[in-house]
Amino acid sequence: MTDETLKVHQGFDLKQSEISSFLVKKGETFAVFKQSVADHFQVPVDRFRLWILVTRQNRTVRPDQPIPETEANSSMEVIQNEMNGNQSTLRLYLEVIDQPINGKLWPPKGTFAGSYPMIFIKYFDLETQKIDCAESLNQIWPDMCVDRSCGKLYVSLNGKVCNIIPILKKKKGFPSNTRLKLFEVGQFDEWDVPSEIKPTMIEAMKITATFRQSEIQDGDIICFQKEISETEAAEYRSQGYAATIIEFFEQIIIAKLNQ
């Protein structure tokens, strides 16, 4: 899975179809495999990391941890057995960065003990009725670490959710007084379509809470939209449009059920 597949995905979870696959010998080292990935995607080998994708208990598929460079000489079989749990297929997320941030490619060592999780950011555009993967901004380590590619942020678990709102506004070119609503996308299996949106699937976030209190972890997805008045929301609905992210995903469910 790559940032490019995420950018065009309109669904709940991270896009898992139309992805590249590699047939790898068990004894092939991680360094050799990583070079193959670099050649395939035409990305310098020192400008990307590969994350293990796991299926969580709530059935969502998310990046769990990056394969460390210390595993360069480990065989892919060892990585599969030691890092991939009981999953039969090794699924990976390709995290690419095009330029250093504050002189560094990745967060400082030691920050991946859960203190600075990587989260994905999606924006629901009320006008176009589409989801886009909000491309990110450069930011200084380690208070808020932001990748410039597909919408990803490294956030401090002790930081408040509202801390990222100015970044989101700046990215979208919104005036500073624009009010935003943030939602966490939770449980959803796109191959097992539910009959309705449940509270555990998409939940409004309390912006005064910390990311730790919000139980945010690596690979979580946060969607945001402009906050609108009830009058504006009624106008959208009268035209058959979604006025909230939740309504947008409800329309996706109805469309899938009618297929």
Account of the protein in words:
- With 259 residues, this protein is an alpha+beta fold.
- It folds into two domains: 3-96, Ubiquitin-like (UB roll) (Roll), CATH 3.10.20; 118-257, Phosphatidylinositol 3-kinase Catalytic Subunit, Chain A, domain 1 (Ubiquitin-like (UB roll), Roll).
- Helices cover 21% and strands 20% of the residues.
- It has helices at 3-7, 30-41, 76-83, 165-172, 230-238, 245-257, and strands at residues 48-55, 61-66, 92-96, 118-125, 130-132, 144-147, 152-155, 180-185, 202-204, 221-226.
- The radius of gyration is 19 Å and the shape is globular.
- GO terms for molecular function: peptidase activity.
As a percent range, the share of helical residues equals 10-25%
Structural class per helix/strand content? alpha+beta
Fill in the CATH topology of the largest domain.
Ubiquitin-like (UB roll)
Q: What shape does the CA trace take?
A: globular
- Biggest beta-sheet profile: 7 strands, mixed
What's the helix count?
6
What would you say about this model in short?
This is ICP0-binding domain of ubiquitin-specific protease 7-domain-containing protein. The chain has helices spanning 3-7, 30-41, 76-83, 165-172, 230-238, 245-257; strands spanning 48-55, 61-66, 92-96, 118-125, 130-132, 144-147, 152-155, 180-185, 202-204, 221-226. The chain is built from six helices and ten strands; from the N terminus they run H-H-E-E-H-E-E-E-E-E-H-E-E-E-H-H.
Secondary structure blueprint with pairings:
Blueprint: H1 3-7, H2 30-41, E1 48-55, E2 61-66, H3 76-83, E3 92-96, E4 118-125, E5 130-132, E6 144-147, E7 152-155, H4 165-172, E8 180-185, E9 202-204, E10 221-226, H5 230-238, H6 245-257
Parallel strand pairs: 4-10
Antiparallel strand pairs: 1-2, 1-3, 4-5, 4-7, 6-7, 8-9, 8-10
